[in-house]
Specification:
Blueprint: E1 8-15, E2 21-23, E3 30-36, E4 43-50, E5 53-58, E6 77-86, E7 98-102, E8 114-116, E9 125-133, E10 139-147, E11 149-154, E12 157-158, E13 174-176, E14 178-181, E15 189-198, H1 200-203, E16 222-230, E17 236-241, E18 247-250, E19 253-257, E20 261-265, E21 284-285, E22 287-289, E23 294-296, E24 303-310, E25 313-315, E26 325-341, E27 348-354, E28 356-358, E29 361-363, E30 373-377, E31 384-386, E32 393-401, E33 412-419, E34 425-429, H2 432-448, E35 449-450, E36 452-453, H3 466-479, H4 483-496, H5 523-535, H6 539-558, H7 594-615, H8 619-640, H9 652-660, H10 666-682, H11 697-703, H12 707-715, H13 722-727, H14 763-771, E37 773-775, E38 782-785, E39 795-802, E40 805-814, E41 817-824, E42 829-832, E43 841-843, E44 846-853, H15 856-862
Parallel strand pairs: 2-7, 13-23, 20-30, 38-42
Antiparallel strand pairs: 1-3, 4-5, 4-6, 6-7, 8-22, 9-15, 9-18, 10-14, 10-16, 11-12, 11-15, 16-17, 18-21, 19-20, 24-33, 25-26, 26-31, 26-32, 26-33, 27-30, 27-32, 28-29, 34-39, 35-36, 37-38, 39-40, 40-41, 41-44, 42-43
Bound molecules: beta-D-glucopyranose.
Beta-D-glucopyranose binds near residues 456, 461 and 577.
Length: about 850
């Protein structure tokens, strides 16, 4: 047990990648961390107790440790405790108990049927059923899902706090079923279960060409639900389930669309519809439909409201009819508005959401065809509160039309919504613009991790673009615990990939025309690899191995197969998407040949496959991929290296990827670094890279001895640059470097989002190299402490909640010295390389400080 005089205690016992209630794994892996003030503490052994029986004594592992007990059955509960012994003989007591409960694990557990209301697209429905339960169990569980999006009510109360359940997965194969504890809402006797249902991603329009293909997954929305009460003998009795007895009626939400918004007429809401006293005469019978989608428990966190943002300012809008208001939330965010209003019955308030103003006037161009408009018609007769349920918007400003009476800014709140991941990473420094840029990266991730990792959250797109997450994933894994959400997405990627054309551009795939291409398709390999590297989850490599090797083998075939050159030429490529020199209407035609990018990515993928196969003990594959990697690398050199040691595309991204992915003979690496630095300088330290080069250019400069140039690039405030966007008012990361141009006008291209995380991927370099906190072994089992102080900053620091606990690295200039500090979590070590030195040494867990001479003069001299 825990007490104040502890030496060693076990905290935070958890299961893999999500909360422990309603899980879908019968053998959930366990992680815990140890809190101790003993320097250098290492775990020698741990005992895991399940339901009072000590199941296992294991060695030093404390991250994703295999479930030591018998596999959990559907609905089974278990109590887990852990205690540890240190290599120094220290002992902890037992940890606080972790209560684990399994969801319905097999299709046979489902006794409910899919029920469907006859509503047309964009209409919503209310479904209800009364039921009796004489049972006094010690737990009631609602298992529920939908084709479409739902919100459940039991006896008049909303069930749970999720938003847009069941989220978006590859609905042709699998849909998430939620499990809620409804013990407190259920009563003995008569009860009513109600479900609100709307199109969501299932039937709503998706993708810019959606007008032609509205209902991607089917033309009927439906729900399935089963309410089980755990009986005294430990069994379960189903007291309510969806079947032909259910009834439905059109919802007061008369229109609901993810892209376009929601209309709600409060006058039409049947009061008390989800309570037993309600008379549902006139409601219709549902249709029971067949659907063969597999119901699966969630792998990561649900979407929730995670923050409330107040109106920052009420602005005057241009043309005003007296009732139109323009409000500014001060932050481009993703979610929706909640209003508190009191006014005459039948008054309609219209809310339009936009990301930007141009000359003070709301500009909706970045939304393309997404209407992003909500309308609420008042019931009247007293205060009312409303927030749309089945849509979300990406916005900073909103126009409010038709507000009755005096508007108090406190009556409107923005509810920020996204997958409710735990924040794990922070960065700080003495440059406020750079700190604001980092904040923009965090907001960009929050806005684009709403059930699936998307390109953007506002326009008629919001799709799981593979290339965007492929470049952003290292940053994502530092900032938030996104392993569960990304593992779920990878499951869909594997389900949607095809043996003839590979990995789709977007996952879940809703595009008709596509053929797999480099970097984007390589997400099949790079995303699992990064999850392994950052979270220490080797299971992801095993689970995705089939997907990644199918992709790798497919592109090897495209590149020429078994002998001769391995070279991708005819394959479609997005290239170094959106580098600042690319023409507005052809973002793939930047300064770096897109086939050079594609072939570099081929090398990188084969290199990772070689390492992954070796890690998994697939020696034959490891050998084969090693040979393929060598061949691809030689082909790259033959095709793209000129006689004078330069690359055929004499451009920043070409050198950045050649250096970062180790594609050049050793003696030419320095030449490439020198040329990269020259190019960066001749561009006046303004950015010259697109999606692929942007996350790598600073690393490539630092790795070849040009730290000062990397600092000049990141601290540049003239456009195009990261901080240039901050200077022009960005509160998120933009899709285009010049989304807002020098004269304040917006880029005219249709593809101009103000919330795209890809260019924010440089934050990973801020964490690893500017602050100096990186994993040296998977999951930060060993940290790499290697800050690279450069000109323009006097201090920088990063904190990261590794699986082992909080790690911190920071540095600060002090006279002619630099003080480096680090916190190394228990049960880990750190390999340290101090500024100005090229040798490293190891330290154990604890707090450390070092004072070194400030090497900045030497760095300055290099410029
Ligand atoms: C998306 C991207 C994506 C790109 C691919 C765009 O429409 O917004 O971020 O990667 O298409 O070309």
């Amino acid at each position: 047990m825990t007490d104040a005089t502890y030496e060693v205690r076990v905290l935070d016992v958890r299961i893999e990648h999500r909360d422990p209630f309603g899980i879908g794994t019968s053998r959930p892996r366990l992680t815990w961390r140890t809190d101790t003030y003993i320097d250098g503490w290492r775990q020698a052994a741990a005992d895991i107790e399940i339901d009072g029986a000590v199941s296992s004594r294991i060695g030093p592992g404390c991250v994703l440790v295999d479930w030591p007990g018998a596999p959990l059955r559907s609905r089974q509960r278990a109590t887990v405790r852990v205690r540890v012994t240190g290599t120094d003989g220290s002992h902890s007591g037992w940890s606080a108990p972790l209560e684990v409960e399994a969801a319905l694990l097999t299709p046979a557990d489902w006794r409910a049927e899919w029920v469907s209301p006859a509503v047309s697209m964009e209409q919503t429905a209310l479904l209800r059923c009364d039921f009796d339960t004489p049972i006094a169990g010690d737990g009631a569980r609602l298992h529920i899902s939908s084709l479409g999006v739902f919100e459940a009510e039991l006896n008049g109360s909303v069930v749970g706090d999720h938003v847009l359940d069941p989220g978006w997965t590859s609905y042709r194969s699998r849909v998430v079923a939620e499990t809620f504890d409804v013990t407190d809402l259920l009563r003995r006797g008569r009860n009513t279960l109600g479900i609100r249902l709307a199109d969501g991603w299932f039937r709503g329009r998706l993708g810019a060409d959606a007008a032609a293909h509205p209902a991607h997954y089917g033309d009927r929305i439906a729900a399935i639900a089963q309410l089980d009460v755990v009986t005294d003998d430990g069994g379960a009795s189903t007291v309510c389930r969806t079947d032909a007895r259910w009834r439905w009626i059109h919802g007061a939400t008369t229109r609901a669309s993810i892209y376009d918004g929601e209309d709600h007429d409060a006058r039409a809401e049947p009061a008390g519809w989800s309570r037993p006293e309600f008379d549902d005469t006139g409601w219709f019978d549902v249709d029971v439909i067949e659907h063969d989608v597999v119901l699966v428990p969630r792998l990561g966190p649900p979407v929730r409201r995670t923050e409330e943002v107040e109106v920052a300012e009420v602005l005057d809008s241009g043309p005003s009819d007296g009732s139109r208001l323009l409000v500014d939330f001060g932050q481009n965010l993703v979610g929706r508005l909640r209003l508190d209003v009191d006014g005459p019955r039948g008054t309609t308030i219209e809310l339009r959401h936009v990301e930007v103003l141009e000359s003070g006037v709301p500009n909706a161009a970045s939304l393309r065809s997404a209407e992003a408009t909500d309308r609420y018609t008042l019931r009247g007769g007293g205060p009312e509160r409303w927030e749309p349920r089945f849509t979300f918007h990406g916005f900073r400003y909103a126009t409010v039309d038709g507000w009755p009476g005096r508007f108090d800014p406190g009556d409107l709140r923005a509810e920020v919504c996204h997958s409710d991941m735990t924040r794990t990473g922070w960065f700080s420094c003495d440059d406020p613009l750079l700190e604001r840029f980092h904040e923009n990266v965090v907001w960009g991730m929050r806005g684009n991790f709403l059930s699936v990792p998307t390109d953007c959250p506002q326009r008629d797109e919001r799709l799981g673009w593979t290339g965007d997450i492929a470049v952003f994933v290292p940053t994502a894994c530092f900032l938030f615990d996104c392993a569960g959400m990304l593992r779920s997405w990878l499951t869909d990627l594997a389900l949607e990939q095809r043996d003839d054309i590979g990995v789709p551009w977007v996952v879940p795939n809703v595009l008709d025309q596509w053929i797999g291409c480099s970097v984007w398709g390589d997400a099949a390999v790079t995303v699992p690899w990064t999850i392994y590297d950052r979270f220490g989850d080797a299971g992801v490599l095993e689970d995705q191995y089939d997907s990644m090797s199918r992709w790798a083998d497919l592109i090897v075939g495209w590149a020429g197969g078994d002998d001769g050159d391995l070279h991708l030429e005819w394959v479609f490529q997005f290239g170094d998407w959106l580098d600042p020199t690319a023409p507005g209407d052809d973002p793939s035609a930047g300064a770096t040949d897109k086939h050079l990018v594609g072939n570099a990515a081929l090398c990188r993928t084969l290199d990772l496959m070689r390492r992954i196969a070796a890690l998994l003990g697939r020696d034959g594959d490891a050998e084969r991929y090693a040979q393929l990697h060598e061949r691809a690398r030689s082909s790259f050199v033959r095709s793209y290296l000129t006689a004078d040691g330069l690359l055929t595309s004499d451009a920043q991204t070409a050198y950045a990827i050649a250096i970062a992915w180790d594609l050049l003979p050793d003696d030419l690496r320095t030449v490439a670094g020198t040329r990269l630095a020259e190019l960066v300088r001749s561009a006046g330290h303004r950015i010259g890279t697109g999606f692929v080069g942007t996350p790598l250019v600073c690393d490539a400069l630092c790795d070849t001895g040009h730290v000062a140039d990397a600092y000049s690039l990141i601290l540049q405030t003239e456009a195009p640059s990261w901080l240039g966007t901050v200077g022009r008012g960005a509160t998120t990361v933009w899709e285009r470097w010049d989304a807002i141009r020098a004269d304040g006008s917006l880029h005219p291209a249709a593809m101009t989002s103000f919330n795209h995380y890809a260019f924010g991927a440089v934050a990973d370099w801020l964490h690893r190299s500017v602050a100096g906190l990186a994993p040296d072994q998977p999951g930060y089992r060993r940290l790499r402490v290697r800050p690279l102080p450069g000109p323009g900053l006097d201090r920088a620091a990063a904190q990261h909640d590794t699986p082992y606990g909080r790690a911190e690295v920071g540095w600060e200039r002090n006279g002619g010295h630099i003080r480096v500090s680090a916190v190394v979590p228990p049960n880990t070590t750190a390999r340290v390389e101090l500024p100005g030195s090229t040798t490293s040494f190891d330290v154990g867990a604890g707090r450390h400080h070092w004072d070194v001479q400030d090497p900045s003069r030497a760095v300055e001299a290099q410029r």
